[in-house]
Amino acid sequence: MTMTIDEAGRSFAVPASYTDETRLHEALALLRRESPVHRVDAPGYNPFWAITRHADVLEIERRNDLWLSAPRPVLRKAEVDAAIDARRAKGTGLKTLVHIDDPEHRVMRAIGADWFRPKAMRALEVRVRELARRHVDRMAGLGGSCDFAQQVAVHYPLYVILSLLGLPESDFPRMLRLTQELFGQDDSRSRSGGTAQHHTSVLDDLLTYFRELTAARRARPTGDLASVIANARIDGEPLSDFEAASYYVIIATAGHDTTSSTIAGGLEALIRHPAELRRLREDPGLLPLAAEEMIRWVSPVKEFMRTAAADTHVGGTPIRKGESVLLSYPSANRDEDVFAEPFRFDVGRDPNRHLAFGSGVHYCLGAALARMEIRALFAELIPRLTGIELDGEPAWLATTFVGGLKSLPVRYTMR
Questions:
Q1: Which CATH architecture has domain 5-414?
Q2: What PROSITE patterns has UniProt attached to this entry (predicted)?
Q3: DSSP state of 39
């Protein structure tokens, strides 16, 4: 059935759109070609403009003085927007790096920035490699078949984040449940239906956990990132419990689901493109480029939103002050004007100007860590694989924000 431009635009507000990648990319290609700056009026959502071309997304990202994260940093149902606005008015709304703008953003980002610089990454690399080896060993012990997404990919990055924050591995089940609930509430596995009440409940659980962590690290600092956040000061004043908890939330959630989605989607791409898997096995030096291609291919962050601070234009289309735009990363990362053969998975793609980590002042704080995790896992896995194939149909998470494969059944042999 032929898709209309309006139907293509409304796909951004339909979580199930991201469970059918073929149909999704048909919609995105149509918009890039026919209506790259497209107004979307979707039931249950406040209106927005969908931005689908790489150049336009990049320009908006770079103009953080004109395009603000507040008050609508991600696409949510109108009722959730209203509930969050009400919390913000009371001073209890989530306030992470994603939600705020300069100059506050610059000051808050600096608190944790040193932990993601090259020196800190080198110090963490031993632990990341250890965890990668542990999870590949676990895969080897599963008898030649597993759901890679659920049994490997979802666990490994969360253990890395727990190590970075200095949290005990005993907290893994709680953190896994909360992060999956936060990003997966539009999916069938969540019975909440993405309601404002459930969104608020999950946030409250996360904030309660991290408030307790703040108190513990202030009473007894332990030299980890959690201690740095808990004891940070701005203009001589400590962060409020709520500010500290918000900081933990973005580290714990953004650093987990995005990387797990990329690892699962990266393996699925290698299985579907066996020549690329052979190429990578024969030339392990391609792994850094392969990791970038996995990130582009999966684009686990589906969108961020920005709100115009003044009347302006995007691609010749007028946007009024206060109107919101949705930056579509899966679309920008398949833009035919930027990527040669964008629908070809190429482990040696170079250059690879993907925008999966964003750009400008909001460029992903944990990008270096995500790259390290992906490289470490596949550096352990690929030399040990002697054969791998799908063992059923993969399934994708229904979402409008962050996601990827929720199930990847595979059958394999390993050394």
A1: Orthogonal Bundle (1.10)
A2: CYTOCHROME_P450
A3: E
